[in-house]
Design brief:
alpha/beta; nine-stranded mixed sheet
């Protein structure tokens, strides 16, 4: 069974309950001072606590999407996600290949013309050769005959680190939220490209072009829009793309919008931070390259680079988020220039978790949709 399997979770919960009941039932028999009784008590307590902690851990992973599978959990993912494809562009299915089609969660068996569709895809960057899976949400209008030639604005949606792309679909409910907002006339129909920023697992590249390593920023700013635009009817106008993310994905979203305003007309960082960390998960991202180090620091960019012509959204909460003071300072720094537009969502309370982000996503998608070029909401 997979690490994120519901069957595994409920089996572990049942095992914990049965072990607890067995402990209560057998404890009088194990109350003696013989070595067998002592070993029995130790075994029951250890097994019960192991089952309880396993159940809690599995439930937390189901809710927050920390690890995608057993190999991810135990650090056994060795594939760096960078491939060399010697086929000419356009062969072997092109840079984007549809692997599977899924219904939008929460819509039952409604047809794509009514509820839209989620497609699981495999993407290979034309220039970076980074290969990664993703999910693409297509709104109902995409499948309707009267909109056959219509193009749609698109947004990249990124998880935190390590994160799972599937959590964006099922736990954070991006497709379902986008559908409901469009049906209510609050947001224009929009294509969502959902994936995690960890395109070179298990390394956390922080969306940086690593010297001699994965060119992650180039993948997101150039290869990904090109691959998606070559397969789907995406609006090709300047600023027709948006980018949204939470935590690490939020930092990436802000950086991509600031570095590439010609591509991303809007960038939203939910619970974002504003400078790339350096820790065992990232390794040495810059190899002594001061220019790359500076570009990864959004504070440095605000002070030393021309203000980008884009829109930024940042979120935090007064109680529960560690980035609250930095977010207020970031807002003030951006307000000092006239080309970059800044907006914010500040909650009274809310931790660094899925429940907080679910409260922010509807307003975030509405904000992004209102700042991208393309057809208006229907």
């Amino acid at each position: 069974m997979g690490l994120t399997s519901d069957t595994l979770l409920w089996s572990t919960v049942l095992c914990a309950v049965l072990l607890f009941a067995a402990t209560v039932w057998l404890w009088p028999r194990l109350a003696r001072r013989t070595w067998r009784a002592v070993c029995g008590r130790i075994a029951l307590l250890f097994a019960t606590q192991l089952a309880v902690f396993s159940a809690v851990g599995l439930a937390a992973n189901q809710s927050f999407g920390f690890y995608a599978g057993w190999a991810d959990l135990f650090g056994q993912e060795k594939d760096q996600g960078v491939v060399v494809d010697h086929a000419a562009p356009g062969r072997a299915g092109g840079p984007l290949r549809v692997v599977d089609t899924l219904r939008v969660p929460g819509t039952g068996g409604a047809r794509p013309e009514v509820a839209g569709r989620v497609e699981q895809v495999a993407i290979v960057g034309r220039t970076t050769r980074i290969a990664t899976p993703a999910y693409v949400y297509l709104p109902p209008e995409y499948f309707r005959a009267e909109h056959r030639t219509r193009t749609f604005p698109a947004a990249v949606v990124l998880t935190g680190y390590p994160g799972t792309a599937k959590a964006l679909v099922e736990k954070l409910r991006y497709p379902r939220t986008a559908l409901e907002l469009a049906e209510a006339g609050r947001m224009r129909p929009m294509i969502l490209v959902m994936l995690r920023p960890t395109v070179a697992p298990p390394r956390d590249t922080e969306c940086v072009d690593v010297p001699g390593g994965p060119q992650t920023e180039t993948f997101f700013a150039r290869d990904l829009p090109e691959a998606v635009g070559g397969h789907y009817r995406v609006a090709g106008k300047r600023g027709g793309w948006g980018v949204v993310g939470n935590s690490t994905g939020g930092y990436c979203a802000l950086k991509l919008a600031m570095h590439h305003p010609d591509v991303f007309g809007a960038g939203a960082g939910l619970s974002a931070y504003y400078d790339a960390p350096s820790d065992p998960t990232t390794g040495d991202l810059f190899q002594g390259d001061t220019e790359r180090r500076n570009l990864a620091d959004l504070w440095w960019c605000l002070k030393h680079r021309p203000a980008p012509d884009t829109s930024l959204l940042v979120t935090s909460s007064k109680v529960g988020e560690t980035n609250y003071k930095d977010t207020l300072k970031f807002i003030e720094r951006v307000k000092d220039n006239r080309r970059t537009r800044i907006s914010s969502i500040i909650l009274e309370s809310g931790g660094h978790n899925f429940n907080t982000w679910r409260r922010e996503i509807p307003a975030t998608l509405e904000w992004v949709g209102g700042r991208l070029s393309g057809p208006p909401a229907s």
